Amino acid sequence: PVSRMMRGPLLVVFGLLCWASSALCAVVVSTSPSVLASSLSPITLSWSGIVNASASDFLSVYTPSTSDPEAEIGWFPLNTASNWITGAGQITFNLVNPHTDYVFRIWTVNASYVQTSLKGAGRNHTGFSPVSISDVVTFQNPYEPVQGHLALTGTQGEMRVMWVSGSTSPPFIPTVQYGLTEGTLDLTATGVYATYDITMMCTAPANQSDFFRDPGLISDVLLAKLLPSTRYFYRFGSNQTGWSQVMIFVTPHPVGPNSEVNVVAFGDLGIGMAFESKYEQQTPSLTTINRVGQALSLPAYKSAFSHLSKHADSVGSTPPPWTIMHIGDISYARGLAWIWDWFGGYTQPIASQAPYIVSMGNHEYDYTGQPFRTNWTDYNTDSGGECGIPYYARFHMPDNGDVEAMYPPVKGQPSPRNLYFSYNQGPVHFIITNAETNFTAGSPQYNWIVQDLASVQRSVTPWVVFSGHRPMYSSIYQGTDTFYEHIREALEPVLVKYQVDMCLWGHVHVYERTCQMVNYTCTDGGGASGSYDLEKAPTFHGPVHVTIGMAGNEYSVPWDSPSMHANGDGEWPEPDWSIFRSNVFGYTRFFANGTDLYFEFVANQRNQVHDSFWLHK
User: Three-state SS for 261?
Assistant: First the structure.
């Protein structure tokens, strides 16, 4: 009998012989092209020669090409091709550059084959045999700078640029060339790069070789002395690794009460890959990314808030300055390292055009043994053993949070960052927090939140927007989730004391907007069944809470009730404090000047506004 250790190599040998000689195997799979020009270039896979084709036959995707044949990262059912029944067909899709190579295998029904154990992200291969293997697919530039994204630093006139290059790159200095015209990139900034490895992961699957992939070299470059409200052209990379295409961003308007800000906000995005996988994917995210991209690209005089902006009288092509807020649960990699490559590749068009502000969710951090844990927290293994390491390394938000008080740096590991921080933009003070680390009274994060809110100068930033991944209010869990209650009990008095205007939350994969409220009570005298009207309530009555976890994750049991007979349909009745709720996918956006804040929820399906409201000073 063939041992488990020998099975993988024998399958590879068989596949290569099958591919090389039609005398041994009639099935052939080919790739076109076999060398791709750049990340997300299209590739066509063609096959022929399958006898007695079955609807169960599939084509597996592997990266790197040396992966165990039973440890693919995903697969395509062959019956997705229109003529699959003939034993031939083709599929075309875009392939991200992970700075390594790919290979593809066809598996057909064979009742005699038995798999001993599941590996990696692969499916069960019992009853199938590998009958053909493709040539190895590579990219023209194995060091290609990809996954570009921007970030604010908290200092006016600065912008951070980050991207990923291949880890086998020759020595290089991360460089951004930028300027005021596409043909004149006459300014230069340089920075540093870092990485992480499998030994830094905390638990399985992140620390297992079937799941971990080399993340590459993550570059971090700071641009300074930028003009406000100005369009810049830029590219990133180096002469040694190659350069990105030329991109644009528009710097924010100056901070102050006479300024304005445009924000896109959502949570729980994730990514949908081109192929199927054993693990859930967030396929609606692709539409959300596309819709957001459309909104960001419109010139100022055509943008969503052109009728509100004093900067929208231009007829040029420059869009207004936007910022994107992603409120936790970023890629949903959960230890499947290649998902970070797909997420970074597909979000680059929006994240390289506007600062991409992230906050930490349970799927970035939660793991067995995390430091803060009580009898009421529901922390599990939601990060898949990543324990925040990719999140720390891949993003760099403003550094004004007192993170080291909670987690002193560990030698050889990326320093914990992006846990909580704040920044000013236009007339708004933004504060970003998390509930995966200690937020209770007296903790470093709690003390920092109090200090930060106490230091806000409302004469400079009249608005305060607070955000965190886990919400303190949701009509899905009406009094049944003690975690939510502890968040509310710890933080709501602080929010009320310092008159926070709006709170943005994720985690629950729906959209829900409340009245201005305190302790489950609409404090302006209105409610869903009353005369509540934010346009008539400029005086502070408590924060408006908006849950915006509807960007991509498909898992949801909206408005679930412990009683299957509640309200006649097994759902919680909508409470008075819930003004609008919906379980359709989409994103939110808002505009603020010194006296007015206007907010919209835009659904993906026809790109229409489903909910909107005003706040006034």
Answer: strand
